[in-house]
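Bench log, entry 3. Co-assembly request; chain sequences pasted below exactly as received.
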Amino acid sequence: MDYQLVLESLMKMSKILININELSEIEKYRKIGISNFLFAVKDYSIGYEAFDLKDIPDDVYVYLNRVMDTDAIDSLKKRIDEFKRFKGIIFEDVGVFNIFKSTGIPLIWNQVHFAVNYNSINFHLKNGSASAVISNEITETEIDEIINNSVKPLILPVLAKNNIMYSRRTLLTNFNKYNGLDEKKEAILNEKITNNKFLAKETEYGTFIFNNEYFNYTKLIPKYEDKVLYFLVLNLDLSVEEINNILNGKKFGNDGFLNKKTVFKLEDYK
Amino acid sequence: MENIELLAPAGSLEKIKYAFMYGADAVYFGYKDYSLRANAKNLSREEIKEAVLYAHNLGKKVYVTVNIVFHNEDFKGLIDYLKYLSEVHVDAIITSDVAVMNIINEEKIDLCIHVSTQASILNYEAAKFYKNLGATRVVLAREASRKDIKRIKDETGLEIECFIHGAMCTSISGRCVLSNYCTNRDSNRGGCAQICRWTFDYEDNGKLITDKPFSMTPKDLNMVPFIKDMMDVGVNSFKIEGRMRSIYYVSTVILIYRRLIDKILNNTLTEEYQRYALNILNRVANRESTPQFFDKLPGVEEQYYLGRDEVSNQDFLGLVIDYKDGIATIEERNYFKIGDNVQFFGSETETKNYKIEEIFDEFDNQINEANHPQMIVKLHVPFELKKYDMMRLKVFDI
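Structure output for the full assembly:
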């Protein structure tokens, strides 16, 4: 690989923000040039491998993606100081923003499915959020429009199994109990009419359902490299090597909604 | 007890009139754009104006849903529309998008902001966030517990609106795009295809775990046993779901809750009435209903396991269109015949049992049955009825 290519690859990797499933991954990621890490936090996150606060290294981002109830927000308020060593908090619930807004910790708005227009994103950016994570159910044209009109650099997810449902119910436990099946906290739900498979993961805080296939927007990296804060990778089950290969062009996953505009009025449905 | 409001869904002017007639204090509905029931009838701008005038003449309120999750293209015309809603004096809009709230503030549009349940508010800090944006009311997530509601009320002083009856999403509202994936219809812009009511193969490592289809369909919400408790923890507005439901469904549900709330406020609520209310409400819907998150986390009993289990209801037999000199003129809705035991009910008519002994057609010819939808028939009814009272099959005693 010539010097220019190495440099481009390192630049790209320096813009990747990736979640960690095992602490041992960190060194492996560093070796391929990735140095921005995201940790889901036990009791305040759902769907991803979560860590006790004490086990999370300094200078990383933390992912608080639960819709917080009273107990969760009360508990979080008592632990504000424990978060001050982190690079930033990616939050789902605006209650989290409210309790951290005066701490100086960079806060990143990630209300899944809601960051689909630049007016709402800019509102959050002008009112204290350091950045926002763009939602995944929009077209490339819409992504363009949002990135080009946002008042601060945003985070664009480029590789993930998209979260498509978050239920407070323990859906797998309920079904297993009703049918006398063994306890199971993870399963595939296969919808055969439309040929969609979904990955359901359950914890005490509810059931998080993902599309079972990764979307892969890595082809957008060159286009937005100078415009975004990070490219987000939310990894559930890929090895560091596989991630590296995909980021370097290996064909993988699908195009999600990049070229598929959703409709909502029956007269628009063709 | 702070102002208590019974809030009803209304997908048309006709439903608005029935909602108020049967005891609602306020109604909510949407316009053809910007509203989450994109494929409902919805109201035109002129009809919104008419609805507000009609409501305000009765001393009642009108809230308009502006509750889609906006994409950039959806903002077209929004400022003019919000100004129009202000000009015709709607009492509030219901929205979850901060951009809409921001527009109202920046453009100084005189509109009250109620934060939609789509915002998934379960804690007082989130409620404070929206209070800072000018919201006067929060519609809490259906997942809110007694404790969540009380803390939000105590810490914010905001008006609290909670759903008390009707369909539930499996997901936390707004946190689902199953429909987008399976049908390309955007659930957060009103296109939800209700995929959570479908069934799925249940698999692990490419193999079926069981032959039984996986289902995650929730039963409907029914808060009859907890209305008093909800009042005690500070709920102001008791909201019924169902902008696309029939006038019979909406009228029946509103009337049951109207009387329930009044009995609680008058200290005359009895266990008998609660039992009766539950019977009627379970009968009028096509799904079973149950309390869900208020007192515990829903478990096995709060959902279905066999996919759609919905039974069509043909209890609504006729609408009273006139009553004079002991003769009720009825517009038929479902088949009935001589010998049937029925009940009449209405907003000002106590529910009364009646056995059909004779039926006359509109030309006063005696007939044995009413078997054509909307046919006009007459019955001798010895007690007074009012126009828009309803006749249903008698299933439960009063």
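Residues 75 and 396 of chain B are 50 Å apart (CA to CA). The first helix of chain B runs from residue 13 to 21.
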